[in-house]
Amino acid sequence: MEREIRVGLCGCGVIGEGLVKALHEHADIIRARTGAPIRLTAAADKDPARLDLVRSHDTSVALLDDAFEIPKRDDVDIVVELIGGVEVADRLVREALQAKKHVVTANKALLAERGASLFALAETNGCDLYFEAAVAGAIPVIRVIRESLASDRFLSVRGIINGTSNYILSSMANEGAAFEEALKAAQEAGFAEADPTLDITGGDAGHKLALIAGLAFGAHVLPSQIPTEGIDQVDPRDIQYARNFGYVIRPLAVAQRVDSGALDLRVHPALVPQSDPLAHVDGALNAVAIQGEMVGPSFLSGLGAGAAPTATSVAGDIVDIARNLLAGAPMRTWYLPVEGEQRIQPLADLSSRYYLRFSVRDESGVLASLSGKLGNAGISIEKMVQDVESGAEGTATIAILTHRAREGDLRASLAAIDETHLTTAPTHLIRIVQ
Ligand code: HSE
């Protein structure tokens, strides 16, 4: 008799409902491509309204209010964790692995914080633990790094890996939307995390970058070790000045090996020149640019958030595990071995170009004094524009692009400038993409 692969779903929110639809509506395609049927046998959520939605797509699924019942069931081979958060999800995934169930999760926070021990537990129990949907939604970045490019040495991985932030910055730039209005639209579209603070402060991208650093560089990095700045610091004036200089502001995540051998890991908004493909990645789209020693540049782009794209990645992992089960070969594709602790470059040692926005007194000698102080610190100006602010008598804004400088030197110079009478508010700094 044909073997059936049985799935138990924990968490029936936006992505969970998307998965129920995908498994049900694409059952024939999935069966043909897998070589066996894949059936959702049970789904759990505390919220009865969500279970009603599952029932509206597929009446054959056993509906439960306790996710911890799913790993105990005999009619479940693969447990899908879409609960989110760390503590409860951690307990659930451990119980599933201990019960020798294979696991698919989209939970980047969980894997970034607890991945080392969870992957070890999966190995001990001979189980697969897949997580393609945890990074960049529908873009198969995990598979590309650990399978397609497995033979290469990675030089850099950089990209836009938070759809909500990119959606907000794009709406502000393209439609003149206010920050709060754009955030609300991103939440309504199902892009944002349950706690959108994680999106707008860069935390979500930090979780994803920690996973990328593990895969591409064998680094065991905790999100707290990654210098992280959110898009909440971007002012509409910065978007306008950036545009006039020929740039757009994008939420950037970078992982690269620098000459000292350290890893340069960071998450922050960045000015991206119009000539860079990342400048054209708009809305909830994500993109990941990979540079490998042998392969050269690769550019992957697609929807990084939302129900259907993310559920497609989850379903792809289920198909992969199903193939492993049918071949009797679980753990065929493994999380890359971690090479241990690696030095992370302090931001002070970063060599970059910068955008600076000064609020200054509109008085003679201010500009000369400002550029003199930057010059004395070895900071060279590439472009500059000054506007007298309307409505703020006696003040002006000076926007500057610098040539490459060491961030520690630049920050020391800005701190000294902000202590003088020259500026009327703290100077604003945004890095320019390298
Ligand atoms: N909140 C995330 C984002 C969802 O906006 O990218 C996908 O991880």
Give a written overview of the molecule.
With 434 residues, this protein is an alpha/beta fold. It folds into three domains: 5-137 and 307-327, Rossmann fold (3-Layer(aba) Sandwich); 142-302, Dihydrodipicolinate Reductase, domain 2, CATH 3.30.360; 347-432, ACT domain (Alpha-Beta Plaits), CATH 3.30.70. The chain is built from 14 helices and 16 strands. The strands form two sheets. Strands 7, 8, 9, 10, 11, 12, 13, 14, 15 and 16 form a ten-stranded mixed beta sheet that branches. Strand 4 (78-81), helix 4 (87-98) and strand 5 (102-105) form a beta-alpha-beta unit. Helix 7 crosses helix 8. The relative contact order is 0.13. The model has no long low-confidence stretch (mean pLDDT 94). The structure holds L-homoserine (HSE).
Sequence-ordered SSE layout with sheet pairings:
Blueprint: E1 5-10, H1 14-25, H2 27-34, E2 38-44, H3 48-57, E3 62-64, E4 78-81, H4 87-98, E5 102-105, H5 108-124, E6 129-130, H6 141-148, E7 154-160, H7 163-175, H8 179-188, H9 197-200, H10 203-217, H11 236-245, E8 247-257, E9 263-273, E10 285-292, E11 296-303, H12 307-326, E12 351-361, H13 366-376, E13 381-388, E14 395-402, E15 405-406, H14 407-418, E16 423-432
Parallel strand pairs: 1-2, 1-4, 2-3, 4-5, 5-6, 9-16
Antiparallel strand pairs: 7-8, 7-10, 8-9, 10-11, 12-14, 12-15, 12-16, 13-14
Bound molecules: L-homoserine.
